Amino acid sequence: MKKPEFLPDGPGVYLFKNRDxxxxxxxxxxxxxxxxxxxxxxxxxDPKTRALVKNIADIEYLVTPSEIDALILESNLIKEHRPRxxxxxxxxxxxxxxxxxxxxDFPRIFITRRRLxxxxxxxxxxxxxxSVRESLKIxxxxxxxxxxxxxxxxxxxxxLNFQMGLCSAPCNGKIDKEQYRLAVEETIQFLEGKNDKLxxxxxxxxxxxxxxxxxxxxxxxxxxxxxxxxxxRRQQVTGGFDDWDAISIAISGDNASAQVLYIRNxxxxxxxxFTLNSQNASESEIMGAFLKQYYxxxxxxxxxxxxxxxxxxxxxxxxxxxxxxxxxxxxxxxRKKELxxxxxxxxxxxxxxxxxxxxxxxxxxxxxxxxxxxxLGLDSLPERVEAFDISNTGGTDAVGSMVVFTNGRPxxxxxxxxxxxTVKGINDxxxxxxxxxxxxxRIGSGEDTVPGLIVVDGGVTQLGAALSAMEQTGIHVPVIxxxxxxxxxxxxxxxxxxxxxxxxPALKMLKTIRDESHRFAISHHRRRRTSRLRTSVLDTxxxxxxxxxxxxxxxxxxxxxxxxxxxxxxxNVPGISKVIAKTIFSKLHAPKAYKL
Length: 596
Known about the structure:
By secondary structure, the chain is an alpha+beta fold. It has helices at 32-41, 47-54, 67-81, 129-143, 160-163, 177-191, 195-211, 215-234, 283-294, 314-323, 334-363, 366-376, 428-444, 460-473, 505-533, 546-556, 559-563, 567-571, 578-588; strands spanning 12-17, 23-29, 58-63, 88-89, 97-100, 109-112, 121-123, 244-252, 255-264, 267-277, 303-306, 327-329, 384-393, 396-406, 409-410, 416-419, 453-457, 479-482, 489-490. The strands form four sheets. Strands 13, 14, 15, 16, 17, 18 and 19 form a seven-stranded mixed β-sheet that branches. A six-stranded mixed β-sheet has the order 4-10-9-8-11-12. Helix 7 packs antiparallel against helix 8 (215-234), helix 12 packs across helix 15 and helix 13 (428-444) packs parallel to helix 14.
């Protein structure tokens, strides 16, 4: 890993990676060296930051000309990689864009909800899908840009859009590339809001057609001009200096809701809501992260009205570089304050719905899995958890159990028993190693699903046995040990156990899984022991029934223990009389006694 002292002392973006080379955090700084050093020098870190630092295995960086360039790059990288420890808009893809594939010979125009780095031009996002579809229809009538994926085949049959006057049919050569490209450029100008220039150009063409008495073509241009005027009234692709966005964020723990109200020419014309994973950051940090991600795609108005200033002053400079004259204001009274308050009420209402949905997920086990992923630093949600336990009586009838929980619920069909084959005597860790090793070999052969997490019943010793099995098989799966006495969680390569509060959903789930593996192991052990005892030598002794047989085995641990006991020891067993004790001793020590 690159040490902080070798990082550049200038503006740029830094990327933290884990052992699997996955990006887990992206940040920007005016000095990459100083900012990264703070992570490793600070002793007063919140739990999230401690978990982040613990999982850093490598550091990469990108030097930028300025802090503004770093801000833009940071926002793009977060959108592209969605790192686990960054504040991230969860639902920024739900709003539609208009996409023009300018990198094709004959570009297409269509609506999409995904913005990719594919060289195309995107306009939006828009808050009303119905309005976008209507706008696209008018744009198609105006500029006749193709929407379909039909192959370009000269003299081929054009699609229905051509017959409807919505496409110029480049697919069969009815328009050459230069003319078509001009129509595409006019479309882009219109979507960029450069309507004045477009209107002047169309007016000029209309007058030329009139002067040549080409009235049909002039009438077509007249209709286009009227359609542009109508559509321009509805269009909100770019904001003007008299337009505002009122933004507020409501926060609860790891969840946050952002509400954006669109005010155009003094009227409220729409709103949008977003859910964020807040990473327990401050209000100003969350606001800053939201503004960077939101305005990397959305139109920037003349004023952005907030209830909390962002923590990063470079954001305002960046917005002004994008849209010219822009102000960020925290209003204290009047109409603007009322709008921000309205945004907050809507954000709070939306957050309640988010928390309600999360509560439903938590009851189904989802919340506990998310917490498990977070506290253990797992790369993905442990949707499948396997737990192992050992059960035996004095080393006899030893068995292992595997229970499986899928999405927080018992998956009974996946439960498995293991009869211990290679270990003799009382050696639970060796038995655990055998059971886990057999399970991993099955995974290695491709016969079964790889679990997201393995839980072994026990502390450091049992955890070490599971890790030894992984070393032997070469198959590595996240694994922890859960000790019964204090419910401590033991994690590989850590000095001290992890202690979670009793109210923790993750701990409750782990205890449930561990207890289920214990119950399943004991039930199989009892069945196996009972089956063996049915044909035991004790069954041939008069006066020994099922109850006395269980008493003797429980007291001495095994048949060998009963055989090695003296008469006095047998007499001291509760429920065994002197006569019965004498009979047992004589039977087991007779010259032709049954083999045990």
